[in-house]
Design brief:
The protein has helices at 15-34, 48-51, 54-69, 85-94, 118-128, 145-162, 164-170, 181-189, 209-217, 222-236, 244-257, 273-287, 309-314, 353-370, 385-406, 417-427, 433-442, and strands at 3-5, 74-78, 108-112, 133-139, 171-175, 192-195, 262-267, 295-300, 319-326, 375-380. The protein is of the alpha/beta class. It folds into two domains: 3-37 and 225-406, Glucose-6-phosphate isomerase like protein, domain 1 (Rossmann fold); 48-220, Glucose-6-phosphate isomerase like protein, domain 1 (Rossmann fold). Bound molecules: 5-phosphoarabinonic acid.
Length: 443
């Protein structure tokens, strides 16, 4: 079970303040769970884990079986933002660090459509051309430019290589029930589709087909992931001050109001890198609006202690940190004894590398605390499907509560549209002629 330790905040926050914000968090939870707050038509994620049926999971797993049977060895998952980061986070967290180099039982899963780099896309096509390929295209709106550009290429390649009829077996779309270009195209081409419910926003969709299908295709246990999320759904719904989502949401709002404007999510395992990316989108898009919001950033230690450590220790005091602690690891690597001991490491002989990592983690927390950085610690037992399911739901719930304390609608993202309008105008999209003229004057 995940545990939230707030000891590292005690010298920055007084008890009265914590009590007040806990009361506000409990009120926010009640608003969230009763569906009476801003954006309440986007609460489909809130009770989702307990609504996932065996039948739904079997539907995802039937795709895995079918593609293994067809000897598919490369699945290109196309999507961006909330239609990409959850699956990427889980697959990176659960995979061997060098998984793309080694053998695998099922297909390799790679991601595309999350950038517009021509080089990336050309190199993707290099890989596609030597593999037995299938594709999952994910877009809730069905109109997002980045995935649409890549899908156009992959679709053409699959149709030309395997034929139109066979393409139907190799392309799956995850999109809205009725709306959008991808829905229209899927209906017309006869693709198998999975629906993203209207009341679930992209960044809250990891426990739908958006996340679960790619995670299952990469060979991971989605049943366990959902079990973890269900357990966390129960815990995070309890209207008590021990509820970890309440405590986390309360504390981060106190710190924000005390001038700590940036939260760093800290991992000590490179496998957590994309979990941080997912978390950044979740909190950044949900809270960063109306001139308010904690800026979510992330660091991978010990790596970044050698680049950003100086600032965190000693720079402007606007940061707080949330450490992700993984209590047990599956692998053991022992540091050996060396007769000469020229590197001076014999004092560590017989110790595991993870012992050093844990001591670095403790030492860093104390040092940053002493330097004026409040720290929280979220511990999980193991980096596995069950615990990731817990983390996903925990952060979603805490995010909803936290945004309501802050006083913003967690479920919209009006600011994302501005760059798109400019991009469309500069690309010459029909309907954007006036903006195009204006922007061209500024070039
Ligand atoms: O959270 C969000 O709403 C966004 O990040 C979207 O997920 C992202 O823009 C992709 O949108 P779509 O799934 O409609 O292609």
């Amino acid at each position: 079970m995940i545990n939230l330790d707030l000891k590292g905040c005690s010298s920055f926050v007084n008890e009265k303040q914590f009590e007040d914000y806990t009361a506000r968090a409990l009120e926010a939870l009640s608003i969230l769970d009763s569906g009476t707050g801003a954006g309440s038509n986007f609460l489909g994620w809130n009770r989702l884990p307990s609504e996932i049926t065996q039948e739904m999971l079997e539907d995802y797993l039937s795709v895995v079986d079918k593609w293994i049977e067809m000897e598919i060895d490369l699945v290109v998952v196309i999507g961006i933002g909330g239609s990409y980061l959850g699956a990427k986070a889980a697959i990176e967290a659960l995979s061997h660090s060098f998984h793309q180099m080694g053998p695998s039982r099922g297909p390799k899963v790679v991601f595309a459509g999350h950038n517009l780099s021509e080089e990336y896309i050309a190199e993707l096509m290099d890989m596609v051309s030597v593999k037995n390929v299938a594709c999952v295209v994910i877009s809730k709106s069905g109109t997002t430019t980045e995935p649409a550009v890549v899908f156009r290429l992959i679709k053409k390649y699959i149709e030309e290589t395997y034929g139109i009829k066979e393409a139907r077996k190799r392309i799956i779309a995850v999109t809205d029930k009725e709306r959008g270009a991808l829905r229209l195209l899927s209906n017309q081409e006869g693709y198998k589709t999975f629906v993203i419910e209207e009341n679930i926003g992209g960044r809250f969709s990891v426990l739908t087909a958006v996340g679960l299908l790619p995670i299952a295709l990469a060979g991971f246990d989605i049943t366990e992931m959902v079990r973890g999320a269900v357990d966390m759904q129960r815990i995070c719904s309890e209207p008590t001050k021990d509820n970890p989502a309440i405590r986390y949401a309360a504390m981060r709002n106190i710190l924000y109001d005390n001038g700590k404007k940036i939260e760093l999510l800290v991992g000590f395992n490179p496998k957590l890198h994309y979990l941080s990316e997912w978390w950044k989108q979740l909190f950044g898009e949900s809270e960063g609006k109306d001139g308010k919001g904690i800026f979510p950033a992330s660091v991978n230690f010990t790596t970044d202690l050698h680049s950003l450590g100086q600032y965190i220790q000693d720079g402007e005091r606007i940061l707080f940190e949330t450490f992700i602690d993984v209590r047990t690891i599956r692998r053991k690597v022992e540091i050996g004894y060396d007769k000469q001991d020229l590197d001076g490491l014999n004092y560590l002989a017989g110790k595991n590398v993870e012992f050093c990592n844990k001591m670095a983690q403790q030492g860093t927390m104390f040092a940053h605390n002493d330097g004026g950085v409040p720290t929280m610690e979220i511990s999980i037992d193991l980096l596995d499907e069950y615990n990731l399911g817990q983390l996903f739901y925990f952060f979603e719930k805490a995010c909803g509560i936290s945004a309501y304390i802050l006083g913003v609608n967690p479920f919209d993202q009006p600011g994302v549209e501005d760059y798109k309008k400019n991009m469309f105008a500069l690309l010459g999209k029909p309907g954007y002629e006036r903006q195009s003229k204006e922007l061209r004057k500024r070039l």
